[in-house]
Amino acid sequence: MLSSYKVIKNNSVVEEGKKEINTEYAAEKNKELGEKNAKDFIESYEVLARTMLENARRQSDKILAAAYSEAQDIEQEAYKKGYEEGKKAGYEAGIAKANEYYEEMKNRAKYEAETLGKNAEALLYGAKQEYLRYMEEKQGEAKKLILYIRKHFKEGS
Questions:
Q1: Per residue in 98-132, pLDDT tens?
Q2: Angle at 116 between CA 113 and CA 117, to 5 degrees
Q3: CA 122, 127, 133, 135 torsion: positive or negative?
Q4: Are 37 and 31 in contact (CB under 8 A)?
Q5: Predicted confidence (pLDDT) per residue in 54-88, tens digit
Q6: I need a labelling partner for 102 at 20 to 30 A (CA). Which of 1, 46, 66, 119 fits?
Q7: How far apart are the C-alpha atoms of 54 and 48, rounded to whole Å?
Q8: Residue 31 has what pLDDT?
């Protein structure tokens, strides 16, 4: 193939033979080729778009699955934490209630013991007073009985 460098750079062209230069543009062929290229181009972009959408769906499904899994883990952790805190709070409240009940029962038992002690002292004092009154009352009779028994033993011996 001849170089067109000389034609472009030189001032003159030497004609060596006759050749017909066809300057008609074949638009139909190029048009068909262009339409085919455009269709292929559009189809490739549609395939690319579908692929991108499928990838995006897969990624969104993965993200959703991970989010659901993480939410479930958080829910379980929150349940365990709430359970432990509730258990601890319940235990502490139970201990506090038991201590309160213990103090109340201790004070009540102390009061009842003091009351029973006072009642016992009063009963003992009353019994002692009754015993002393009884002894004073029966002292005269006891003296008579002793004198009677002594008199009878002396006479019988």
A1: 999 999 999 999 999 999 999 999 999 999 999 99
A2: 80
A3: negative
A4: no
A5: 999 999 999 999 999 999 999 999 999 999 999 99
A6: 119
A7: 10
A8: 58
Three-state DSSP state, 80? helix
CA distance 145 to 125: 29
Flag whether the pTM goes above 0.70: no
CA distances from 22 to 2, 19, 26 (A): 18, 9, 11
CB crowding 40-69: b at 16 or more within 10 Å, else e: eeeeeeeeeeeeeeeeeeeeeeeeeeeeee
A 10 A CB-CB count for 121 gives 10
Which position has the higher pLDDT, 75 or 17? Answer: 75
- Pairwise CA distance, residues 97 & 105, whole Å: 12
Which amino acid, one-letter code, is at 82? G
Q: How far apart are the first and last CA of the chain?
A: 186
Measured between alpha carbons, how far is 92 from 118 in angstroms, rounded to an integer? Answer: 38
pLDDT at 61: 94
